Amino acid sequence: MALRRLLVSPEFLVRIEADPPGVAPGTAYRVTDIELASRLSFFLWSSIPDDELLDLAERGALSQPAELERQVRRMIADPRSGELTTNFAGQWLQLRNLATLVRPGEPYAVAFDERLRQAMITETEMFFESVVREDRGVLELLTADYTYLNGRLAGHYGIPNVQGTHFRRVTLPPDSPRGGLLGQGSILTLTSHAIRTSPVLRGKWILNNILGTPPPDPPPNIPALEDGKTSARVATMRERMDAHRSNPVCSACHSMIDPAGFALEGFDAIGRARVVDESFNAIDTRGVLPDGTAFDGAAELKAALVLHPERFVGTVTEKLLTYALGRGLDYYDMPAVRRIVREAAPGGYGMQSIVIGIVNSYPFLYRRSGS
User: Per the domain annotation, does 346 fall within a domain?
Assistant: First the structure.
């Protein structure tokens, strides 16, 4: 009976931060070092603190800025920080959705097998983890000239001289359409429909996860996209989307969502590079970002996205802070986000600088008592 009681106790099932006695309702106060150790370990390891963290917390030394930075770097170097990649990248990039994705029928059912699915997931996880562990700049998530491949994935990408099942770091040629998240098969497959690409899904993913400006939800009863078939030819995706946008109800949102998605039309629904679509129509990858920056293709889109680096770095910081706190951000959290980005700028927006900024931030170190 004692064991049963233990296993159903809220203190066993849920990580609880209780308000200290005597604190008035609605009052902001700094968390204890023991609570800080727990916040830190669940953020970076998705697990309980180790003995070193607890010893520092019991002595009241963990909250000292220099010690806190040292512990963050130690924890990132520890193999347990792989949980940050699995859980945060899986949540932010929606990578976990790839595990259940189905590609039925031609032309993708045969090409997209389980080995390729797992290889795509591994590529993105190893890539993200390398940026964190090696303290590379956040912008490398978009602009990197390398990736992680095995023979199966390299063959899928058309990259020669990579064989075997083990993954290794591969430097990409200057003219490669790969490099960065927007050239990886995992993201390109996740943002496609089962049998065709989708500029809408890809554009929405970029607005949500790269620019941090999610579009509004679609209105009810919107018409489906026409299949574009005529007696003479099959319309291109751009022509079909143009016809769809002729409806005023659809036009406002799609004019903001679609352009970035069209830049990725040079990849098919499972991330293979192409120059014509399924009906052998030439592909038009031109577009304009909401700020007016024009581009043509994935490479120019990535260059346009990093013209104002604080946008993407701010989005990554927001996503990481949300993950670290276990709650959505509100307007009163945004000064902390801007400060983290601003302080990381002189060092090239290093990923570990962003993480250290988060654990030193007011939202991470303080909480508000219940009403």
Answer: yes
Q: Which residues contact residue 344 at a Cβ distance below 8 angstroms, ignoring those fewer than 6 apart?
A: 138, 313, 350, 353, 354, 357
Q: Is 137 helix (H, G, I), strand (E, B) or coil?
A: strand
Confidence band for 106, pLDDT divided at 50, 70 and 90: low
**Max alpha carbon distance in the chain (Å)?**
79
Which DSSP symbol is given to 89? I
What gap in Å lies between CA 251 and CA 243, rounded to an integer?
Answer: 10
Residue 359 lies in domain: 309-368
Dist CA 6 CA 240 (whole Å): 60
107 prior amide bond cis, ω within 30: yes
Helices (H) and strands (E) in the chain, counts: 19, 6
User: Are 6 and 357 spatial neighbours (Cβ–Cβ below 8 Å)?
Assistant: no
DSSP single-letter state for residue 85: I
Does a structural domain hold residue 96?
no
Please identify which residue in the block is written with the tokens 């064991």: 3
How many Å apart are CA 68 and CA 56, to the nearest integer?
10
pLDDT beyond 90 at 184:
yes
**Is 152 in contact with 197 (CB distance < 8 Å)?**
no
Q: Taking a C-beta distance cutoff of 8 angstroms, is the pair 39, 324 a contact?
A: yes
In a domain, 150, yes or no: no
Specify the higher pLDDT residue, 147 or 259: 147
**Banded pLDDT at 328 (limits 50, 70, 90):** very high
Query: Measured between alpha carbons, how far is residue 157 from residues 141, 185, 199, 288 in Å?
Result: 19, 8, 20, 27
Q: Please state the domain count of the chain.
A: 2
Q: Considering the domain boundaries, does residue 87 fall inside one?
A: no
- CA 331, distance to chain mean position in Å, is 22
Determine the pLDDT at residue 219: 64
3-state secondary structure of 30: strand
Q: Which residue has the tokens 């903001």?
A: 256
Distance of CA 359 to the CA centre of its chain: 20
pTM to 2 decimal places: 0.89
